[in-house]
Amino acid sequence: MEERSCRRMPVEVGCWLVEMDGASCLYTFDISESGVSVITEDPFPVGQVVTLQFFTPRSASAVTLEAQVVWSRLEPEGGMGLKFINLDGPGREVLRSFTEQLKKRRGLGRP
Question: I want to staple 43 with a disulfide (CB 3.0 to 4.6 A). Which of 53, 61, 72, 110 is the partner?
């Protein structure tokens, strides 16, 4: 298993998994600058690349990111871990800003 380079922040955020035939609404249970874990009854296989969309408190439009499934499970609750890939500067900045906001809300921000 890969060592995480960024600390995950527990947070429930509605997001959409965009597919060729539509989008599925999911919820996150944690997020970091490098990835996200989502709750789903129908997880994709490890290695599959997906498109994820979500809103942050400061985004007027949906943030769209590509991610690769790094783990997938059905039990005890269905879910999968997604590692963000092909991040450009604006996408990386949105994630950094969002995770910093979460840290401050939880009292984990830098003094």
Answer: 72
Answer whether 82's CB lies under 8 Å from 70's CB. yes
The pLDDT value given to residue 107:
63
Q: What is the dihedral of CA 12, 95, 25, 37, to 10 degrees?
A: -60
Dist CA 22 CA 71 (whole Å)? 23
Q: Which CATH class, in words, describes the domain spanning 9-105?
A: mainly beta
The dihedrals phi and psi of 21, each to the nearest 5 degrees, come to -100, 15
Cα–Cα distance, 10 to 99 (Å, whole number):
10
pLDDT tens-place string over residues 57-82: 776 778 889 999 999 999 888 999 99
Task: Match 């809300």 to its residue by tokens.
Answer: 105
| Confidence (pTM) | 0.81
